[in-house]
TrEMBL record:
Family listed: Belongs to the ThrE exporter (TC 2.A.79) family.
Protein name per its UniProtKB record: Threonine/serine exporter family protein
Compartmental location: Cell membrane
Source superkingdom: Bacteria
Length: 264
């Protein structure tokens, strides 16, 4: 249904609600802030907004929309930190493209949003397998043996399971990565002490690479390049805090275990 056939005064508020759902879906699953703002801006133009503004930061979206003949509607939605899921980002992007090409009514948008919400996420076993494979690959990349790669892979898989469990009880990223780094470092040190030929440093760096906030830092740089300094600064700060958590976790375990085990 085109926006000309809708009653602006009746549909402004529901449209804002759906746009916030789309923006939150993009933001929570790994989209950059500038991408969310651009998607909302395009939707506003597609629905004939006479006034439109969107303010997006990683934790909130503030949207103001006015359709012809209707008062402005302004609303804020707080967003939560979710796991990166580029499949869902692509689905929300496709919804935005479809609505820009042929604006639909709120019932059509609701059906599409429900279909996206019903899509299964990445299976837990697949995430654990991928993290384990990544840790093993990094251990080999940094000069470790196949034995080191196997140990790093097992630790990486274990840490992914641990991270998902901690996220399930609403722990923030700093403490999740601190605890995972500490646990992984402790296992690497103990394994190197008990397993002949194992290199603690290669195992440790392999499993730590799965914790590095690469996507967060990349999104921060992309927001900076798009001219959104505030969002970029927030994301860089988040990446630095996660990195600090990793460093603290590893340092504590090294300080505690190395004098006892004599592992270098």
């Amino acid at each position: 249904m085109s926006p000309d056939r809708e009653t602006p005064a009746a549909d402004a508020q529901p449209l804002v609600d759906r746009m916030l759902c789309i923006g939150a879906g993009l933001l929570e699953h790994g989209a950059e802030v500038y991408r969310v703002e651009e998607a909302l801006r395009r939707l506003g133009r597609a629905y004939g907004a006479s006034e439109f503004s969107a303010f997006v930061i990683p934790s909130a979206i503030i949207l103001t929309l006015s359709l012809p003949g209707a008062p402005s509607v302004s609303k804020m939605r707080q967003t939560r930190v979710g796991d990166t899921n580029l499949d869902l980002v692509d689905q929300y992007n496709q919804l935005v493209r479809d609505l820009c090409a042929a604006p639909g009514d709120t019932r059509q948008i609701d059906r599409r949003l429900a279909a996206i919400a019903a899509r299964p996420g990445y299976p837990r076993w697949l995430q654990i397998l991928v993290y384990g494979t990544g840790a093993a690959s990094f251990a080999l990349f940094f000069g470790g043996s196949w034995q080191d790669a196997v140990v790093a892979g097992l630790i990486g898989a274990l840490l992914r399971g641990m991270g998902m469990a901690l996220r399930g009880i609403r722990q923030n990223a700093f403490f999740v990565n601190l605890l995972c780094a500490a646990a992984g470092s402790a296992i690497a040190q103990l394994t190197a002490a008990w397993l002949p030929g194992a290199a603690a440093d290669k195992i440790t760096i392999g499993m730590l690479m799965t914790l590095v906030p690469g996507i967060v830092f990349t999104n921060a740089l992309r927001d900076f390049m798009a001219g959104d300094a505030l969002a970029g600064t927030i994301k860089v700060t988040e990446a630095l805090l996660i990195g600090a958590g990793i460093a603290v976790g590893v340092s504590v375990m090294l300080a505690v275990l190395q004098p006892v085990l004599g592992v270098v």
